[in-house]
Amino acid sequence: MRTKRILIVVMDGLGDRGCEELGWKTPLQYADTPNLDWFTANGSAGVVDIIAPGVRPGSDTAHLSILGYDPYKVYTGRGPFEAAGIGLISKKGDVAFRCNFATVNDRLEITDRRAGRVKTPDTSELVRSLEGLKIEGVECIVREGTEHRAALILRGPGLSADITDADPHDLGPIAISKGRSPEAQFTAGVVNKFVLATYKRLKDHPVNVRRRAAGLPEANIILPRGAGEFPRLEPFPEINSMTAGCVAGVGMIKGICAVCGLDVIDVPPCCSGGTDSDFMSKARTALEALETHEFILMNCKAPDVCGHDGCALSKVDVVRRLDEMAGYIKDNMPEDLVIVFTADHSTPCGTGDHSADPVPMTIYTKGNVIDEAVKFSESGCARGRLGRIRGHDIVRICMDLANRTEKFGA
Amino acid sequence: MRTKRILIVVMDGLGDRGCEELGWKTPLQYADTPNLDWFTANGSAGVVDIIAPGVRPGSDTAHLSILGYDPYKVYTGRGPFEAAGIGLISKKGDVAFRCNFATVNDRLEITDRRAGRVKTPDTSELVRSLEGLKIEGVECIVREGTEHRAALILRGPGLSADITDADPHDLGPIAISKGRSPEAQFTAGVVNKFVLATYKRLKDHPVNVRRRAAGLPEANIILPRGAGEFPRLEPFPEINSMTAGCVAGVGMIKGICAVCGLDVIDVPPCCSGGTDSDFMSKARTALEALETHEFILMNCKAPDVCGHDGCALSKVDVVRRLDEMAGYIKDNMPEDLVIVFTADHSTPCGTGDHSADPVPMTIYTKGNVIDEAVKFSESGCARGRLGRIRGHDIVRICMDLANRTEKFGA
C-alpha cells in the first residue's frame, strides 16, 4: 500500500456557541464557507472532544492531545513550552517559566502587567542586562518572546516546580512565590530573589530612562509564572515512524511541537498569529513543508483571539478568510494527502475564554468515505460518520487513512 | 421479563472506502440492499470501532473484541486459533502454530508456498506419516486444515512462543526460526528440526511420488508460523450465562469461537467461506442453531476476500447476495430474536488489506427504538442513535435488549 502524507490544520479556538449578534448562530454557522464545506461534503466529518467531554483545554494541553499524548500524564505546566517556543533549550532538572515584563512603582506595586506591551528592541536590550545572573548557585537564563513576553529557565541542583506564581495576575502588589512542598521552598526563594534582581538591574536601565522620558510605562520588572519541569516525551516522529513538522506563528505552539520532536518550520513574518495574519502565506509554507515532511501540523491563532476579545463579527470575518485559505489548499494540495480541518478548542465570543464544547472536524482524502455531512460547523459536522471522537484519536485515524498503521492480529 | 435469543451476523471485511470504479462510493453505498435497509430502518444503527479508533484489526483480534474480550490482554498470536479451528485441543504449556504445506527443491528453496494448493485426501495421508513425531522430548502434533493449511502443536516441558517464523512468507530459502529471548532458543531449535523432519518424511512419500508423476507441485515440507501459547479465557457462555455457538466456514473463526467456549456448529460443505459460499444455507444453519443455543455468532467471509482481491464490483455482488440472505433471515427469524448485522473490520478494495475505518452496524428486535438511519452503509448507519461504539459493547447492548443483563444498583 502506498503511504500518504498528512496535514492537520488547527484553527485555534474556532468552535463557538450561539452569538446574540449573529442571531444566535455560531460564527461557523453564520459565515459562508464554500471551501471548508467542500472538504466536508467530500470527506468524513465528526465532532471532537479534544481532551474529554466537559474538559476545557488550554491550547497547550489541546495540542498535546491532538498530537496523541495524554496531557494528564505529560503536561508539566506552560513554562517549558513557552521557553521551548522561543528557542530556550532546557536540560533535565531545569524549571521553566513564562514571564511578563511589567511596570511597578517604587512600592513594588504593579501598574501595568504588560509594561505598555513593550517589545523588541527594548526587550532584547533589557534581557541582555540579565546575562550571567546567578542566585544561590542557580543560573537564571532569560530570553525575550513576542511583545512583553519572556521565558525563564532556572538551572541548578535541588530545584522543584511545585511553587506558586510570583505574578499576581492582577494589578497591585507583586506576589511572593511559595513552595507547595518543603522541597520546593528553596526554588520559591530563588524566584522571589530573581524578581527583585530584575527590578534592581532594570529600573534605571537606559531603555527605561528613555521610556520614562517618552512617557511610556517602564519595563522594570520580570514576573515569572507557570513553573514547570521540562517533560521528556517520546518523540512524535519515532512513535509514528514519520518525519514531522509544525507551521505556526505563536511561540507556545512552536514550543509544544518542539518538545514533541516536530521540526519547527520558519514562517514568514506576516504569519504573526494575530487576526491580521496572512493565512495564504502560512498555507503555502505548510504545503511546501510537506515536500520534506510526511506530517505537518499547522496552527492559525486568529479565531481564538476574536473569541477572547468577544467579537463575533470579527470572528466571522476570520472564518471567511480561513475559508479562502482552505480554497487555496484545495487548489494546490498534492494528490496523496490526508487533510484534517479542526480546532484545538472552542473560544465562545459570549464568554471570552476557552470552553469544552466539542469542535468540528472534517477529514478528506481521495477515496475516504463520503458521508452525509455537508456543512463545516459545530452542528453540521455532527452529521458525519466519525461521530464524536477524542483529540488523541485524530492522528491515529489519519495514520490509518494514510496507510501507515500496523495490523493488530492476522 | 422474557429473555430473547441473540444472533450476530459478522460480514467479514464488509466496510470499505470510496472506490473509484463505483464513482467513489463504497460497495454498501453503491449496492441496493433493501433487506439490510429494512433492518436499519426498523432498528437502531451506529458505527463501530471494533477495537479502537485508528486500530487496524485482524479477523482474530476483531472477533475476540466482538465477543467482549480485550484482545490486548488475551491475544497470543494466530497459531492457537488455527489449531483450535481444525479441532486440535491444546493443553497448558503447549505452543501452537499455523502451517502451510509447501514445495521445496533439494536445496530447501521454496518454489511454491502452497504446494499447488494441495488438499485432502493428499494432506490427510501426508499428515498420517507424521504421527508420533517427537523431537528432543517434544511431541509434534500435526493436523491438516483446508487446502494447503495445517496446524502444529508442540507439547512438552520448557516451550516458549517467543520465536520467529520458519516460514519466510516468500519464495526462496526456508527461514531459520530464532528465539527472541534466551528461554526461547530451545523451542526455535525444535521448530527447525521439525521442518527438516517433515521434509525427510514427506519428500518420497507415495503421495508425492504420485504428484511428481502427475506434474503437480510436491507437498514435501511443512512451514510453521504465528507461534502462540494457548490463551486461557473465561468461557463466553459462563460470562454471559447463555448457551452459545458459532456458524462459520473459516477455520480460524471456528478456532477463536472454540477457544472462547462457543460450540462450533457444523455447516454444510457449500458454506465454504469463499465468495461462492452458500449464504442461504449458512443462514438456515444459524436459525436452526438458535433452537438449541441462546446466542449464535455467524461469520460470512466473502466480502473480506473481495476486499483483499481489490475487486469492488465483486464485493458489490457479494453485498447483494448478503442482502438476499438478510431477506431470508427476515422472513424466517423467530419472534424473540435480537439480531445484529455488522462487520469485524473494513477491507477497502482500494488498499487490499484491513483498515481501521469504523464499520456499520444495525441492531433489530421487535420493540427496539426506531431511529433516523434508513440505509445500511458506512455513512447511513452513522445517522443512527447508537453513535460510535466499540466492538466490545456489541454483546452487552444485545444482552440488554434481550433482557439478559443484571441491574447495577437498585
Oligomer kind? homodimer
Determine Rg of chain A (CA atoms, Å). 22 Å
Q: What are the segments of chain A in which pLDDT stays under 50 over at least 5 consecutive residues?
A: none
Q: Write down how many β-strands of chain A occur, each being a DSSP E stretch of 2 or more residues.
A: 16
* Largest two-chain interface: A-B, 31 and 45 residues
Strand order of the largest sheet of chain A: 11-10-12-1-13-14-2-15
Helix and strand succession of chain A? EHHEHHHEEHEEEEHHEHEHEHEHHEEEHE
Q: What is the global morphology of chain A?
A: globular
Major beta sheet summary of chain A: 8 strands, mixed
Level-1 CATH class name of the largest domain in chain A: Alpha Beta
Portion in strands of chain A: 15-25%
Helix content of chain A: 25-40%
CATH superfamily of the largest domain in chain A: Alkaline Phosphatase, subunit A
Overall number of domains of chain A: 2
Kindly state the mean pLDDT of chain A as a whole number? 94
* CATH architectural label of the largest domain in chain A: 3-Layer(aba) Sandwich
